Amino acid sequence: MSLSTVPHLTTALTGPLQHIESHLLDHQAEIEHWFRSQWLATPAPFYGSVDLRNAGFKLAPVDTNLFPAGFNNLNEAFHPLCVQAIQSVIERVCPRVARIVLVPENHTRNRFYLESVATLAGLIARAGFEVRIGSLLPDLASPQTITLDSGRSLLLEPLQRRGNRVCLDNFDPCLVLLNNDLSGGRPALLEGLEQRVLPPLALGWSNRLKSGHFTQYRAIAEAFANLVEIDPWLIDPIFRNCGEIDFMQREGEECLAHHTSLMLNSLRDKYREYGIDHDPFVVIKADAGTYGMGVMTVTDADQLHALNRKQRTRMSSAKEGMAVSHVILQEGVYSFETWGPQEAVAEPVVYLIDHFVVGGFYRVHKGRGPNENLNAPGMHFEPLAFADSCNLPDASRAPDAEPNRFYAYGVIARLALLAAAREAAAVAETHLDPTEGG
Amino acid sequence: MSLSTVPHLTTALTGPLQHIESHLLDHQAEIEHWFRSQWLATPAPFYGSVDLRNAGFKLAPVDTNLFPAGFNNLNEAFHPLCVQAIQSVIERVCPRVARIVLVPENHTRNRFYLESVATLAGLIARAGFEVRIGSLLPDLASPQTITLDSGRSLLLEPLQRRGNRVCLDNFDPCLVLLNNDLSGGRPALLEGLEQRVLPPLALGWSNRLKSGHFTQYRAIAEAFANLVEIDPWLIDPIFRNCGEIDFMQREGEECLAHHTSLMLNSLRDKYREYGIDHDPFVVIKADAGTYGMGVMTVTDADQLHALNRKQRTRMSSAKEGMAVSHVILQEGVYSFETWGPQEAVAEPVVYLIDHFVVGGFYRVHKGRGPNENLNAPGMHFEPLAFADSCNLPDASRAPDAEPNRFYAYGVIARLALLAAAREAAAVAETHLDPTEGG
């Protein structure tokens, strides 16, 4: 394969990104020192993945997943890094743990997801823990072995409640590791456990809001931009939210159109300021939830009045049938990275375990434009594993050399993870989640 | 290069090693759980390297270096692992540190060593610290730049004392990282500092004894062998020490010969028990010190009476002119790993940062036999970087498959590191080293 292993940044506007990258390189020791003090104040979640969009002039997170899938898409060369990070986080959080039950999503037909679960379980086993898969599937009466396309097999066992503990047959775990984002609500089976649950239930999408995340992120991006002496907008997507929306009943539509229009205006100003010759756009999506359901791209507020029935229906449903009632308006960030002769759009996804960046991959999609979401339901993207790690910045090379571009991804992803850590801290204070004790 | 990237284990006696490796694999989760509890009780030193010898029937450490050189010999593919481990250990031990002064050995003519210092400093910088080299060279009046064979350059600056701190021009470090084993004694410049010194001065060879290390190791090997259900001898080299020795004056010679004879007898018993058709041998070396000076291999106690003047002189001097007065008698462990068509002897060296195994390399030496030391003064070995990491054991493959052999190296090396950690704890209790405060 003669293809480069790293997508090409197609925009002519590399100036501003080199601007971001060179500021990150110049301040590398300060950045890492700053992160260390941040993690001391607010420990990182167990793990996470961050979707980034790289517009050349701007590099920003657009989604932060605290129950990451896609571990099967990581470069196997960096599995040792994952194993070491798993050892590190468990040592920090619950060093006496020996047995872990991994609670996955109920997507038994999503073979890609099951490959991710198998990879994650394998990494945990290699890190030196007994790990088994405890399924929440309501109709799973007995253990079921699923053979995966990779040839591996995955044993799903029904998770059982016994008093204040969950267990499997002949397996009493010390730790419940959630890989289920709880879009369908908090399962009663997992409430009030004496075992530690990580990440805590309160970080599921049944409690979390994207606007909450990006509110935290905004403050972090400001402080960080101040540290590295850049405009915070270069790393922060503007967002707004408005009240209740009912797309079917057209309630709240005026409000949405109004905010969209305001946001597009301020983006036009920003684009002008930086000499960017593209049309700004706004992404409208569910404030709670994931998997790219109910996502819409708008370049003009009038488009919101002209939605047809199909579009309205699509915006009204999210994962597991939850109705969208709150939406977030987020500045659209162009993805100007392309890969291969067909110039397929590529979007980086960065993986973190504890606060360590352990790898990532690009979602590569031939059929999409640079202003389209690459993580929509049923969408098939090609994963392209990161060729390098994100922790070897090289000041002796050009700011946009590969290790430095990966370092920049890792820095921005950590800012998003820090926002999630602050969400977790805020949630722990208000909910007093019993699983979050010492 | 069509050579295998991993040395070949030439012995026909692979049975017993597969025995060790399969027991390690079978108990992997218990082993890692056990290590976690050990590191909680006794934190690992900042870093270390462990020389192993692999006889096929036996896999044992023969030397543990708490001021490792040779970082330049590691596989660059695992630099991310080193960076992550450095971040992890500093976070655990002294999270507020921003500036580090690295204090190297005074070997300015050893270009290999200087390459190691440059690599280590580079890893620390990538981990997000400001790092500079503070030299103890008495005749270094001003900063000196040395250009290395790799094309890199290294800036040595004279380490200065100011009150209770050491510093360089315009650089006030928070942490003094020793890469100098203090064979020449504890430098007054570093005594009583208010800055943290890691590893502490008390772990230099001016305080440490190999017999102290192997006394700790023996107890650890016994507990560990019990856990994984093997004979502790398979991972533990027998040793003995006797009183004062003066090779020139032939004082203590009888005692040495006596202990050598006793040790050879018990080794013959062990070899018979395991059906090993080789002659056992004993290695006699300085109890304090390193660099393979004053090392002698003996297969018969009578050889000690027949030493000529040259051999006596060699045994009487160690690094930096320290006279050898205490020696340790250690069971010789055959190295039955060979590499390449010439079947050069290969000896693994495992690198650890904190308690994480971050890589290693083989010392490959064409001119040596399987019962000879490969780390003697002026000796030129070829480094062969480990092709795999040591933390990806694979139970689905044969016990002697490469990832599993590397895992076994990592386990035995960590046992030796744990012995060093217990030495450090013992030293901290008796010396109350002021640099070892919280």
Written overview of the protein:
Two copies of one chain form a homodimer. With 438 residues, the first copy, chain A, is an alpha+beta fold. The first copy, chain A, has helices at residues 14-26, 28-41, 79-93, 111-126, 210-228, 253-273, 309-316, 402-431; strands at residues 8-9, 47-54, 59-65, 99-104, 130-135, 144-147, 153-158, 160-162, 165-167, 175-179, 196-198, 239-241, 282-286, 295-298, 327-331, 337-339, 344-353, 356-365, 382-385. Chain A folds into three domains: 1-66 and 209-237 and 333-432, no CATH class; 75-206, Glutamate-cysteine ligase, N-terminal domain (Rossmann fold); 242-332, Dna Ligase, domain 1, CATH 3.30.1490. Helices cover 31% and strands 22% of the residues of chain A. In chain A, strands 1, 2, 3, 16, 17, 18 and 19 form a seven-stranded antiparallel sheet that branches. In chain A, strands 6-7-5-4-10-11 form a six-stranded mixed sheet, covered by helices on one side. The longest helix of chain A is centred in the C-terminal third of the chain and has 30 residues, at 402-431. The radius of gyration of chain A is 21 Å and the shape is globular. Chain A starts with 7 loop residues before the first strand and ends in a 7-residue tail after the last helix. The model of chain A is unreliable at 11-16 and 432-438 (pLDDT under 50). At the A-B interface, α2 and α3 of A face α2 and α3 of B.
How many helix segments of chain A? 8
- Give unreliable regions of chain A as ranges: 11-16, 432-438
SSE sequence of chain A, one letter per element: EHHEEHEHEEEEEEEHEHEEHEEEEEH
- Anisotropy-based shape of chain A: globular
- Hey, roughly how much beta strand do the residues of chain A contain? 15-25%
